[in-house]
Design brief:
The protein contains three helices and no strands. With 118 residues, it is mainly alpha-helical. It has a domain of 76 residues. The radius of gyration is 41 Å and the shape is elongated. It starts with 9 loop residues before the first helix and ends with a helix. The mean pLDDT is 87.
């Protein structure tokens, strides 16, 4: 028996090409959606972190506002911001232990070399 060779009509190739284009465009759309979903998930996580940071800041600002509503808090804020003092107050400098010890007198030869800048 002789094998019969099947010849495909050009219409079959055209249909296969159109189906390939449709499949490719659908695949491209799915890949695009996956990318968009990943970007949205990342943006949502960043927004949650930013929201937590803003809530902490709100708590700190509310505490500062509550402190500034009292006369003592207003006075403390003025003193800290502008460095003012009440009349008759003096500056107190707190020195760590060991830093404020008096230095002994220099030997004569150190004083002599200090005169020359050595």
């Amino acid at each position: 028996m002789r094998r019969r060779r099947l010849k495909r009509p050009p219409r079959d190739y055209a249909i296969a090409g159109v189906l390939l284009i449709v499949f490719g465009s659908l695949l491209w759309g799915v890949v695009g959606l996956i990318g968009k979903e990943e970007r949205a998930r990342t943006a949502a996580k960043e927004a949650e972190v930013q929201l937590a940071s803003l809530k902490e800041r709100e708590i700190k600002l509310a505490a500062s506002l509550a402190e500034l509503t009292t006369p003592r808090g207003q006075e403390a804020s003025l003193r800290e911001t502008y460095g003012v003092a009440r009349p008759g107050e003096e500056v107190i400098i707190v020195v760590a232990k060991g830093e404020g010890e008096a230095l002994g007198a220099l030997p004569w030869w150190r004083s002599f070399l200090g005169f020359f800048g050595l």
